[in-house]
Amino acid sequence: MIQLSPRVFLAIAAALLPFSVLASDAALSTTLDLTGHWAGFAALAVFFIAYGLVIAEETLHLRKSKPVMVGAGIIWVLVAFVYAQHGDTHTAETAVRHNLLEFAELFLFLLAAMTYINAMDERGVFDLLRVKLVTRGYSLRTIFWITGALSFSISPVADNLTTALLLSTVAIAVGGQNKKFVGVACINIVIAANAGGAFSPFGDITTLMVWQKGLVDFAQFFHLFIPAVVNWLVPAAIMSLTIGKGAPDPVHEEATLQHGAWVIVGLFLLTIVMAVCAHNFLHLPPVMGMMTGLGLLKFFGYYLKRRAHFFPASEQQLMSDRALALDGASSTQKINDGAKQYNIFKSLERAEWDTLMFFYGVILCVGGLGTMGYLALGSQLMYGQLGPTTANILIGFLSAVVDNIPVMFAVLAMRPDMDHGQWMLVTLTAGVGGSLLSVGSAAGVAVMGQARGVYTFFSHLKWTWAILLGYAASIWVHFLVNASLFH
Q: What are the C-alpha distances in Å from 126 to residues 154, 296, 299, 371, 430?
């Protein structure tokens, strides 16, 4: 259990509370200051109890979306009640609708991306990559570097969570009973996935939020490429010294792509291009491009469904011989089911609904606290007294203890007066800071479940000093190579 001093606890609270996308809305200029009101204290208590349950998810086996969804409802009841007592029956409604719009854009964007990832998984794209790696006979040290490099390269497109799950299965399959290798390889994969996701709008939820807010253009994210590489390479080079050059036990698996796999990959890349073009050239929300791409995928799903009727059973069976799927179900079973009747909505069903509902709870919870007037308080403490550089570096440490999503929401809500270099800095620190602890990122939490008992909180903690060196080095490199962005 992580022990926090009262001073640290107050700093975390200040970073989390100031979220309010409504601050710039003229209609809400009469927002009440409830920071000293009993309702404000009650809302704070509700939020911290709910988030405490989120942090204890692995221990309690309670889905993280449940407490924050209930907490959001209670907080907004308090907001509406107090405003109604002051004769204002419109501000709370307007505020919650604004928050719901924020969630709707994020929800639909992620739903489209998750559906594409699940469709590629169902067609065998990820299984093919995994089997190719585990059957090539590479040494353990080579596997360590290959999985790290692939994790860094894939996460900017497929997001850090999916990437970490995919590559951790490779490390587990190759390492077998070599728990030392599996543990270190999983740490390397988590660090690389978080670092790779930091320089792409599609790599992490925090970068996606920054992009959707229009604070950083799509191409400008690549200014963080070199700092992100440094963030991964420094701890990876140190950890690799503990891995011998021995070869793992041979693994024999086969993988076969199903019909249309590469078409879906192409459609996904086209969808990303459409999202970027919608935002950069048409000044439309990126979600428009993503949902249009999802419509194209559904049309292709209709083609696959109709095509299945023209294949005899013997040919369907030939398509079903490939490796186990990421979700643990037999891929043979999955392909046979798909060959009988392909259904794109199966990919929609497999989206991370708990994660999507968690985003709803977080946005509404912290949005309600922002409506109560914590925006000015947090902004003054974090950016007024500490200064942007110190505050942005602190954001990375906070994201390791608390999820980086509400932390980034808070920063975006405060909209501190910062130059472009500082906005890029907070994007970097919020993305890679979660690597400091295994519970600091969705990728780390997911891999803890995948390699249960081998990759643990304490096994990761043993290497936090090396990860911290990479964190500091990446910040230094950012100031060095992106000096022109600071004014």
A: 11, 21, 22, 44, 28
Tokens 């209609």 correspond to 27
Determine contact, residues 231/193, Cβ cutoff 8 Å: no
Confidence at residue 327, expressed as pLDDT on a 0 to 100 scale = 41
At residue 326, the 3 state secondary structure works out as: coil
For 127-173, how does the pLDDT look when each residue is reduced to its tens digit (9 = 90+)?
887 777 777 778 888 889 999 999 999 888 877 877 887 788 788 87
What are 287's two structure tokens?
């979600």
The C-alpha atoms of residue 367 and residue 124 are separated, in whole angstroms, by 40
Helix axis angle for 38-55 and 6-16, nearest 10°, is 100
In angstroms, the CA 160 to CA 470 distance is 18
DSSP 164-205: HHHHHHHHHHHHTT-HHHHHHHHHHHHHHHHHHHTTSTTT-H
Tokens of 210: 């920054």
Are 433 and 395 contacting, i.e. CB atoms less than 8 angstroms apart? Answer: yes
Residue 99's contacts (CB-CB under 8 Å, 6 or more residues apart) are: 21, 22, 363, 364, 367, 368
pTM comes to 0.70
At 404, list the tokens: 């980086």
Percent of the chain with pLDDT over 70: 83
Which residues of the chain carry a pLDDT beneath 50?
1-29, 313-314, 316-340
Q: Residues 196, 236: contact at Cβ < 8 Å?
A: no
Report how far apart, in Å, the C-alpha atoms of 486 and of each of 223, 331, 421, 423 are.
13, 51, 5, 10
Which tokens is 265 given?
């990959």
* Best CA proximity match to 228, nearest among 433, 81, 458: 433
CA 332 – CA 320 distance, rounded (Å): 5
